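2024-03-11 09:14:02 INFO queue: dequeued item PEP-CTERM sorting domain-containing protein, len=263
2024-03-11 09:14:02 INFO validating residues
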Amino acid sequence: MTIQIRTKIELALSAAALLTLGSATASTVIVEETFGGAGGALDSSTAETFDAGVGAAGGSSAWVSSDTFFDDGSVVVGTSAISSAYLNLGSYINDTKGSANGVFILTMTIGDVTGSGNTWLSMGFSALNEPSTTSHFLNQQGTGSIILRGSGELDMWGGPGGSVAIDGPDGNAGDRTLTVTVDLSDYNGVDNFGSVTWTDSQIAGVLASHDYASDVDFSSIYISEANGTLSTLSGLSLTQVPEPSSVALLGLGSLSMMFRRRK
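2024-03-11 09:14:37 INFO prediction written
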């Protein structure tokens, strides 16, 4: 009887461990900005979520921003024709090159962009922490940029900067979530330097993808605008896919504790 009871308990614990293992494989949000402020300047405000590991790698939760961006998500006409805001990630992403956890998903939800093809809102990863009065992808620093023009057209750049231009489709009016996914898991520094993929929630499937042809630096994430763009941001996040081997070890450790030899 005792053996049967213990077996049932162990089976129940095994099921619980598997459920825990499944939940542990979920992606982890390491940076998040909800733009839930009261309308103050975005500059010097801090992101709601900023993983301690990013800070330990030299990153900072404080935004560096021009006067165009506000903490409630408003994008207004600033004093500079081109402006940006960024968060410093230090060496956090670069340190994951060639490891199973080197996959990062940057998303931003935005409203309509007003104006013409010369007005645009951009986001992506950036190699350096450029001054906030510049555009990262135009200044040869962007490393996987996507822009939404006032005309509704989407364009992408693999980088560095404005190199590897990819002409995207026209989008529809209304809110959308743009996604830039960088995969460095197969990086070897010789003939594989990672890849980048772009999506738009309004358009089915992948917009485009690009394999990096040389080593790329990922020191920050940024938002940029040009020529008096008006829009609204309602969320930005950076998600890291966990390392499968670490999750597997966690599950195996739990199971080994439960199924060790009975005393």
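2024-03-11 09:14:37 INFO annotate: Helices lie at 2-24, 52-56, 244-258.
2024-03-11 09:14:38 INFO item closed
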